[in-house]
Structure formats: structure tokens, C-alpha cells
Amino acid sequence: MKLHEFVPGERGRVTKILPGSNEYRRRLFSMGALPGTEFEVSRVAPLGDPVEIKIRGSFLSVRKAEINVLEVEKI
């Protein structure tokens, strides 16, 4: 499942980070988006881009093109 399919208020868990830009993957790791980490979608922009998630107590805004490297599941 992809993160852009979630609506505000839904919770999920990062299951894995797919291959992609190594630089961007490192940034996701440093911001706490590690496999097994739970998150909550807090806001989605009117056109669906960007998506704001709360992960490990911090709010993170990511674009659709960037979040496609995250594979997630609903909890």
C-alpha cells in the first residue's frame, strides 16, 4: 500500500523502503521513517500533494513522488 492512499486521521506502519534515490532514502531514515515505525497522517493538501505525517513526535511533509519509496500498511 502507498502512503498517498491514506486520509487524515488514519494510522499506519512503514513496512519497508523501496529502492530509489539514495540521498532521499538517507533523509527519510534520518527523519525517523524506518521500517516498523508507526505514523499518523495529519493533513493532505487539497490536490493531494504534499502529505503531512506525524512520525516519532515530529511532523513531516512529503511529496507524492518522494513518498512512493515507502511501502506502508494500515493499523
Helix/strand/pairing category: alpha+beta
Taking pLDDT < 50 over at least 5 consecutive residues as the criterion, the unreliable ranges are: none
Please estimate the helix content: 10-25%
CA-CA gap between termini? 12 Å
Succession of helices and strands: EHEEEHE
Summed over residues and divided by their number, the pLDDT gives a mean of: 85
Number of strands: 5
Radius of gyration: 11 Å
Biggest sheet layout = 5 strands, antiparallel
| Biggest β-sheet: strands ordered side by side in the sheet | 4-3-2-1-5
Tally the helices. 2
Based on Cα principal axes, name the global outline: globular
Strand content: 35-45%
What does this structure look like?
The structure is a single chain. The chain has 75 residues and is α+β, with helices and mostly antiparallel strands. 17% of the residues lie in helices and 39% in strands. It is built from 2 helices and 5 strands, in the order βαβββαβ. It has a 5-stranded antiparallel sheet. The radius of gyration is 11 Å and the shape is globular. The model has no long low-confidence stretch (mean pLDDT 85).
